[in-house]
Amino acid sequence: EMKIIHTADWHLGKIVHGLHMTEDQAYILEELVRIIEQENPDAVIVAGDLYDRAIPPKEAVDLLDNIFTSISKKFEIPLIAISGNHDSPNRLRFGSSLFRKHQLHLTTHLEEAFTPIRIGTSETAHIYTIPYTEPFEARQYFEDDTITTHQQAMERIINEITNKMDPSAINILVSHAFIRGGSETDSEEQLTMVGNTPSIDSRLFQPFDYIALGHLHRSQYIDDEKIRYSGSILKYSFSEAKDTKSVTVVDVSKAEKKIKQIPLQPKRDLKWISGYFDEIITGSILPPTEDYIGIELLDDGQLIDPVSKLRTIYPNLLHLEKRTMKNDNRTTEQESIRKKREMSHEELFAAF
Questions:
Q1: Are 185 and 227 in contact (CB under 8 A)?
Q2: Which of 60-64, 120-124, 206-210 is predicted with the least confidence, judged by mean pLDDT?
Q3: Among the ranges given (217-226, 290-299, 329-338), the one the predictor scored with the smallest mean pLDDT
Q4: pTM surpassing 0.70?
Q5: CB atoms within 10 A of CB 240
Q6: pLDDT at 83 > cutoff 80
Q7: 278 in Cβ contact with 300 (< 8 Å)
Q8: Alpha helices, DSSP H only, in the chain?
Q9: Suppose 43 and one of 78, 147, 242, 320 were both cysteines; which one would form an S-S bond, judging by CB atoms 3.0 to 4.6 Å apart?
Q10: CA separation (Å) from 69 to 64, 77, 78, 279, 352?
Q11: What is the distance between the alpha carbons of residues 345 and 280, in angstroms, rounded to a whole number?
């Protein structure tokens, strides 16, 4: 049996409504270190989007450096990470061959996906790591012009892996992708905007014993308990206000899987409230707090400087909006996006 801690979507360097999240990220990653200590896993997996952008700010690079160093030194267990669609593979790759001596495995390029990382003593686990790959990269790598979608790229990659796979080992797959049927939030970036749907069919993953996914920020599994998104470590948009962030702990053997989620308690939560100015300002809807707050005001008339008045009880008020037609537009917009997802290419083209 192999015990794995699965996390993803750290997005170090993220700015939410103008606010740098570095301090909150450092706090939550310290919590992750405590969880690793408590759970004593055989390996830790980070399934992509370590950074929020290709050229991360210095504080984000320092934070990743500190956290990787402290996990490697303190626990001396394999730490396995892949690049996501927000990361720059070449920047993330820096020093990776040196890190391997300290059991830090960073997979950033497709050619590394076909050699498994072997862990464990009593029972062996083979961990296959597929960094975020655009269809054109797979097309170049396989020299195959028929690969034009994420689905075709993933089919080809998994086919290559399963041909060489040892069925007696515990086979774990790490990937950063959008699996069809996943529930999205406002803080993910669409993977490929033009020409094809980025979604991948979950049935491709059946040969593996556990699939550690990154990209969708909600913790969830798709079609089968073993095909799992751990979700992001923090709430990065108000659409996630009701979510609970967690890390996933998996005990996996050939015979069974035991999966649990350990909630992450942030330094400051992210909350969304809705109401009339007069009731909100009394603190009756939400008592005064340092948490990050988004407020929807239901008042019709003009209010004089509501933000500075509300900041007296919610110093970290990040967003204020009035309920207007805009909200109705937003639901119709979401509805039309949903409809578009269900249309075939031909129907989309006709609608356009």
A1: no
A2: 120-124
A3: 329-338
A4: yes
A5: 20
A6: yes
A7: no
A8: 22-39, 58-75, 89-92, 96-99, 135-142, 150-164, 277-281, 306-311, 325-342, 345-351
A9: 78
A10: 8, 12, 12, 48, 51
A11: 47
